[in-house]
């Protein structure tokens, strides 16, 4: 039907597939009609098990379709002529049935379902492809199948056969009008092939194959020596009935049958009785009989309890039910520092979303129905963190690529709402308002769920030394919300405080002292204290705490520097959490230009923004205290590997920048309620001297080689991230270097002070640019496909930077003349940086790199799921 190309959507920064009809085909009116019909049919669908269509159009007379790019293999390739394990076959069958149900609900019949048109992605999702033979029929009411309904499009001429022989239904090979039950027949043929490893109706000739479809049943699965559950074989044969009215009447009914089978299969494999039965040599039919008997016994027992319950003096005691959620296949729950605690339960308690890597190592969102055996990946969510649900459980809000985004839980394109450079959580109410923390410091913002400009919804209180508001959570009235405030006084930095406020209010009320995200459910606030998940009674109407806090789970994961615990709760009593430790920290390691590790510096810790002194003998780096989450600056003696504390204030100190002579260090500190600039003697003696104080957050970046200017970042709600310059002599009046409607950051002076390399997102993505200092003058672009964290070589002949894919790049530059001459950028090696601020530094000769490297983590525990979690409290 067409030629498919891999392409790049530069506006949304994603890879896509473009299917183009060749010129010779476009002259064929029939092929053109089928191509257009495929686009129209698939474009009307939006389901995680159907290929997502983004756009259709025509270029130079050639029609094309832009769709999501799938990486994996077709079901045909996955089977490779052999049978699949029964559990895999059920999983793929169930996903396909859900996709068919969605298509049929739109009145679309595929008519060419076969293993070549089913795609299995690398993350295990089954996708239905190629609706080129699709027929749009008038949607029927549930249970009402009218085989004589007129088609709306793509009427098939009587006697004309469209489809693939071997998977067509009897009515299809006769050239009769077809409905959704024809797809169910093809589905049955595919299911048979997955279970047996051979086609259901394949014969030596097309005529013989058609005859088999019309008159014969496929051989019993027992002849293939496959131990297939009889219930599954019955489902398959029910799909392959010759008469349409004797098959499943809808794909929804088919999916329901498969779900019931998968649930009973999962239950049976988790019991202790099954291994014993297998050791005694029982076959699958005997095991099924025992399981069926057990289910009937439980049903009779439940009925008996229901009958006698009214006559009992006291009601039956309810209990919490605990289970575990395992990570997707070839994935893990190894939450990193950037996505710690990235799980959330839908308000209706039916689905769980979490962040986990794909087989390629890309962190994405997954959605797991609590009654399903596996999770489904949400494409277009690469780099996701901190998901939260819409009140109707239909959408998921999340953060990725410095943006706040939303996506339908069933799948589809992710929509960008606004900037959120280093977000710290969000919440969504029934009025379509999202409250979120866009950055590591500052107040909470609010925005409409449909998009628009954000605005501040909380105010930092300097009297309380509040420097960051994060982890909002709406209460049931959808006006009041909870949030965490962390400050700069010793008590608030170590414990933090939970407050409650409402939309449109300037007042907030302190509820409790704790440094944790918080949730409300069924009359309790839930939060973490010293590794223990706690609950405390809370009156959501009077906004008052009651009684004492008590533990509900021990050893729950947390990320102290973020004040984030790994738990989530739904409105109807479903609790999820994960035990263990989130991270092992990072390691400062030396590498040469060939990525050969030379040595390490210091022990494993939580490092940020390592900065070498001008002579390369010392290193300034921020380190997070694992006990209280405080960040301080320490100095390393590079040769001896010894470190000494440089700052001692109870606030957070970060982003060190050396003076050109190595005598002083400038850093940022939030000790007065927001990040201001301070300087101190590099020898560690004397007091911290304030350099610049204002209401805006500020972080130092680079010192000019003559020592006269300091380049720093500010974050202004009006102009986003900007680059400013602070003169270090005279009146010290700052002036802007770059202040635009875009984000500019990571600025670095060139060794001769004539240029500044920086990052801007003016093109829609982060790219490296160089502009003359102090200006004016034209800028030049260094990177070609994304870049950040530029660093100059000591002689100014190279600029290093990090590119997408975690590649360290080097671009040749020549600034000897009046203008800068830029050469091609080339990759040096792939890195594994822990990005808390700048992730690396380089020696002046450009031959050695000190990289803040992620320490490999061990597999973490599964997610613990507790249904009816408050039942244990009442006991």
Summary keywords:
875 residues, Transferase(Phosphotransferase), domain 1, Methylamine Dehydrogenase, Chain H, 4 domains, four-stranded antiparallel β-sheet, 13 helices, 37% strand
Descriptive overview:
- The chain has 4 domains: 70-269, Transferase(Phosphotransferase), domain 1; 271-311; 321-583, YVTN repeat-like/Quinoprotein amine dehydrogenase (Methylamine Dehydrogenase, Chain H), CATH 2.130.10; 586-854, TolB, C-terminal domain (Neuraminidase).
- The protein has 13 helices and 59 strands.
- A 4-stranded antiparallel sheet has the order 1-2-4-3, with helices on one face.
- Strand 15 (385-389) and strand 16 form a beta hairpin.
- The longest helix is centred in the middle third of the chain and has 25 residues, at 284-308.
- The protein is globular and about 95 Å long.
How many β strands by DSSP?
59
Give the class from helix and strand content and strand pairing: alpha+beta
Which term fits the overall shape?
globular
In CATH terms, what is the architecture of the largest domain?
6 Propeller
The helicity comes to 10-25%
N- and C-termini, Cα separation:
64 Å
The fraction of residues assigned to DSSP E strands is: 35-45%
CATH class category label of the largest domain: Mainly Beta
Rounded to the nearest angstrom, the radius of gyration is 31 Å
Q: The CATH topology of the largest domain is what?
A: Neuraminidase
CATH H level, superfamily name of the largest domain: TolB, C-terminal domain
Number of domains: 4
Mean pLDDT: 82
What topology, given as strand order, has the largest sheet?
A: 1-2-4-3
- What are the segments in which pLDDT stays under 50 over at least 5 consecutive residues? 138-161, 267-287, 304-317, 462-466, 488-494
Largest sheet entry: 4 strands, antiparallel
Give the helix tally: 13
